[in-house]
Structure formats: C-alpha cells, structure tokens
Amino acid sequence: MPALPVPVTALIGEDGGMLCSRIRTAVSARLDGEELPPGVTVEQLTAHLEGCAACRLWETRARRLDEDVARLRDAGTAPGGEAPGPPRRAF
C-alpha cells in the first residue's frame, strides 16, 4: 500500500521553515550514512542548521555521542564491563 502524502503544512515550522524535528531526523540519517528523509533536501538541511542554534547544538551533541560510542566499541568494552575513563582534555 503506498504511503499517504504528508500535508505540506505538517512539514513547515512557525517561522515558515522546516520543523526542527524533521531536521533532526535528517541529521540523524546523515550521521548514520543513510539517505535524507523524503521532503528534506541537503540545501534545506544546511539552511536550517545555519539559522537554528538549537538544531546545531543537537547535531553537535549527536556527533559527540557517535564518537563516544565508537571509542567504546574500539576499546573492546563488553556489555557489563568497565568503560575507559573520560577522554583527556587539552587546555
């Protein structure tokens, strides 16, 4: 059964731009190496991130989470095992 079309008004935020939830879904897809969701272009994603500090922060935190998970995976931490200490910060 084909998917029903999503009303355009459901994809537009109060400011006339994309809803942050749609952008965050697109950011997540991009971080996972997946295609962007239908109705979101690279240009729209880029423009929204340039103008929305909250979504830029969300993207930064999502990237850090991905990096932390990768670091744990690379360290060979088994479930229930001890995780390596926090990364050292350069001052």
Short description:
The chain has 91 residues and is mostly helical.
Description:
This protein has helices at residues 20-31, 42-51, 53-74. By secondary structure, the protein is mainly alpha-helical. Helix 1 packs parallel to helix 3. Residues 6-12 have low confidence and may be disordered.
Instruction: Report the sheet-strand fraction.
Output: under 5%
**What's the tally of helices?**
3
Query: Which term fits the overall shape?
Result: elongated
Which bin fits the share of residues in helices? 40-55%
Mean pLDDT: 79
Structural class: mainly alpha
Largest sheet: none
The radius of gyration over CA amounts to: 17 Å
CA(first)-CA(last) distance: 57 Å
Poorly predicted ranges? 6-12
Query: How many beta-strand segments?
Result: 0
The arrangement of helices and strands along the chain is HHH
List keywords for this structure.
91 residues, mainly alpha
How is this fold's topology laid out?
Elements: H1 20-31, H2 42-51, H3 53-74
